[in-house]
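hi! just following up on the protien thing from before. the input was this:
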Amino acid sequence: MNDVILICGVDEAGRGPLAGPVSAAAVILDAANPIDGLADSKKLSERQRDRLAAIIRERALAWAVAWAEVDEIDRLNILQATLLAMHRAVLALKIRPQRVLVDGLYCPQTGIPSLAIVKGDSKVASISAASILAKTARDALMLELHEQYPHYGFADHKGYPTAAHLAALREHGVSEMHRKSFKPVRDLLSTSPAEWRL
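and the predicted 3d structure came back as:
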């Protein structure tokens, strides 16, 4: 067992939406208990993601999901907030990995040797697993936010800038869950009544 290098896969969900936090997940898979069907979460159906997420949480040696909140996104910018969420996810693992593999171009600062892999969520099983956990966790949170803010339609678009979401923003104004540093929201705030600026 001492010869096994514990590799942690890391990925995020929710960089593009106009509302809600960004999520990140870190996963250390068990090489002795592989999971079939892992893939980039964007290439899986909602049902497939939900099924695999349950299996990942059951079989992984360790996993964690963490967040960067809307105010952190607005204060830091979305890239730095994403790296912060990734940092939190890795440090929240109950087992410290020896190497961190991250989807994309940038790695969070964790003090652990790390490597960024472009399209890693379709190349590395542990990153695929992380992408699935990050996506399903964020989708579940957006369903909860839909209950609080039903007129925005978060259950349907999960905060992404769809035509329906933009129309709802124009009609109802900007909520506290919207990212005010993102251009469509920022532009609306600059031309909207003061009471919209929550």
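The chain has one domain: 7-147.
The mean pLDDT is 94.
cheers
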